[in-house]
């Protein structure tokens, strides 16, 4: 059984064994005696204690009490007082041990010492080991040339922590966090401040020192005020922009002509779980950045405390998950159109008519109530009939010269699918009819798909072969399905309606029939 004590190191409470406490106290006492009570020394001691607390927290996972072994690990990591003092010239004896040269992994922090806004680019430059100017130029190119960079900068500003302590600054530069490096860093900071002040004082003379202090204080207050106003304005802008974007997105998917997740998507492409996953993915990818912009605006305005890293990483994970949903469904949907198939042509010989004229007309075989959103994919569209949404398509009719004395109707179907077999099934599922009544041929204006079929690029091609010497009359109703008709005068198909045409060796020629 050991006696334990409770101690406070850098604001963190620890339970420690008595022997460990004595060794740690002796270690810290030697450091205090060495660095003295100056402001520089106090800051060094404070950073050392903060690093010791971090090491204890890492070591106490699954344990409750700091042991002598943990204290020894701290001393090994931070360095013994003798080693530190020897470097400062207080000891003349040299040790034979080689310096510790293990490469330390850099950690990503925002650099507050070289920042313009949030220290993101300078932190990335330190992490990647490149010049800060180059990193800033990269961000400027992303912003002004490619139109991106602002949102990643804001996200990194929120997610990446600032290097506040000396230990974090050393980790940011990939240096080992020990007493020697902590001391060097703080001394360098103090020296930079001292040199800057001496340069300013030497330039203007001691007689102007009070005036300089006042000017510096005034400039400091002014800059801080300007920055606060800028942050407030930026926060308001982000908040207004984020809320406006969120409202626009919600209203957009609810009231735009496409009804994004509704009629067109569900009727023509997706259904069931695929539709739910795709809708969820689109919503997540669009909404998460908007919510992060709103969060950044609120953070700038009210400066409330949050775990920015946890929030940012969670948002990034959810956003990537939504993107994965979209990619999976898109790839799966794209593969369903991989193979295209065209069925063999079916040729029907028309019955001989008593006269020399064939009349071509269409009948409205669907008689739908309304179109859904008036959007078409090639020949396919969604319509409403008796409150039911159905998919219909428009056939294409070509009129050419027959190579025989017979009038022939040729039909060819085509579709796409995940395999040739599936594509063939989709093609044969197309429901289309035409009928001959003596000299009158009635064409259905539309073809239908089965209830379970979606859009698979289904098409119907009709070819009417007319023998030489035969006359055809093209009714006005043929406007919707007539695609091409060979004629000697090169007349547009729409101008051939409601007229008589004689098939010649060179094609159709308009005739006036009495």
What does this entry look like structurally?
This protein is of the alpha/beta class and 514 residues long. It folds into three domains: 4-87, no CATH class; 218-335, no CATH class; 339-511, no CATH class. It has helices spanning 18-35, 39-59, 68-78, 81-87, 120-128, 132-144, 150-159, 166-172, 179-204, 209-255, 263-269, 272-302, 308-335, 420-428, and strands at 4-9, 12-17, 65-66, 339-342, 346-349, 357-363, 370-377, 380-385, 388-393, 396-401, 408-417, 434-437, 440-444, 447-448, 459-466, 471-474, 482-485, 499-504, 507-511. The strands form four sheets. Strands 4, 5, 10, 11, 15 and 17 form a six-stranded mixed beta sheet that branches. It has a six-stranded mixed beta sheet with strand order 12-13-6-16-18-19, with no helix packed on it. Strand 8 (380-385) and strand 9 form a beta hairpin. The longest helix is centred in the middle third of the chain and has 47 residues, at 209-255.
Categorize the overall geometry.
Answer: elongated
Rg from Cα = 40 Å
Q: Low-confidence spans: pLDDT under 50, at least 5 residues?
A: 89-102, 256-262
Secondary structure tally: strands: 19
Overall structural domain count: 3
Enumerate how many helices there are, as a single number: 14
